[in-house]
Design brief:
single chain; 5-stranded parallel beta sheet; binds calcium ion; 11 strands; 4-stranded antiparallel beta sheet; 39% helix; elongated; alpha/beta; 230 residues
Length: 230
Amino acid sequence: MKILVVEDELKLAEYLRKGLNSEGFVVDLAHDGLEGLHLALECDYDAIVLDRMLPGLDGMAMLSALRSKKTTPVLMLTAVGSVEDRVAGLKSGADDYLVKPFAFSELVARLQVITRRGTATADQTTQTGKLRLSDLEVDLVRRRASRGGQALVLTAKEFTLLTLLLRRQGEVLSRAVLADQVWDMNFDSGTNVVEVAIRRLRTKLDVPFEHSLLHTERGMGYVLEDRSTL
Ligand code: CA
């Protein structure tokens, strides 16, 4: 799932980006309302986390401009928590409202709810916080992965990489996207960190099993997909 975070407090924005990445979300950041509106209109996001108080164009104004064009689910963040404020936010088209400071797990739970409420997405998260593909299962709550009932012993980065591929199963993800989202690195730096991690993940995820789930699309990237029935 792809999320746009519009937040002018740089530390909070970065914290949200890292946290959401580790939950397997792909994240774009905008630091003011105009940039946020531009990205929200140009790209297709599964949800937008929108701060209410923003420079340039505030959260409410950005939301009403967005709502005249698109129905992307919006979770609004605010330091102001009065009932009137909450009603105003929901009336202006926010799908949900979260008062700062909030627990990160609460943000993730709300995002899952508003994205499920929207049109069907590729996200396969069930009520129990599990992602599945064929005999592969990832438990997001316990941060465990297994295949055919057999536990996969993964490093934190491998777990994040697998979760990201699994959330976007069937979609080819480029090395640049993976480097950015999993390692927070610019792919131009000539690193082979993605290839190395993919190779390690493959030896755990695919090698011991009859059919492979992780495929390389030459020159394009990697895709997690069950091709055994194709
Ligand atoms: Ca703000």
